[in-house]
Fold this protein.
Amino acid sequence: MIRYFIHLAYDGTNYHGYQVQPHSESVQETLEKCLSLKLKQKIEITGCGRTDTGVHARNYYAHFDTTEAIADIDALVNQLNLFLPADIAVYRIWQVDPEAHARFDAVSRTYHYYVTREKNPFHTHDAYYLYGPLDVEKMQQAADRLKDFTDFTSFSKVHTQVKTNNCKILEARWFEQDGLLVFHIKADRFLRNMVRAIVGTMLEVGKGRMTVEGFCQVIERKDRCEAGLSVPAHALFLEAVEYPFV
């Protein structure tokens, strides 16, 4: 078997997440169908992680195996981009070591969450409209405290099949970009629903409904019921995935 990595991007609006779902359209299923058709063999793709319904990815990586070497990779990329829906784009495909793994070899992942402070019809599908005052300085203070913790059970979707809820937060900050308020977070791994739950809880701090110390206590209690509501998925983007060999 010959292993390939694929680098792509997608708008998640029309998909029930990346991973294959019964009776629902997913990014993975769409890709597998196209690759299988073009390579004339059944292709199964392993992604760098799952994204929930409506979440987008500016940079996503996956791997797949073939029984024979791809004769013209550039031609395949062009064919896929012509055949795939407009909301999925393939940037690159390249051969890797047979042991390379899109999920397990990733050393970090970066997400951005976008908030618009004014109603904007051009940000309907990529930013969360939030009305009212926000203390962004307090929100940044809460973000700074994330690095003090490793167990993020309070921000995880319940009943997930993971061995640990520990994550190492490498970066966490709020900044403004093109009129939007953006939360940037980078970690070695993320739990399901984690970023959206963190943002929802930090917004409670920004609204004055929770103190920074209260935010830390939410994490310490390791109880999802203590955290704020998850913000909508449509404003969340997987921005980057890092590998030691990419």
Observations:
- The chain has five helices and nine strands.
- Helices lie at 27-39, 73-83, 136-145, 194-206, 212-221.
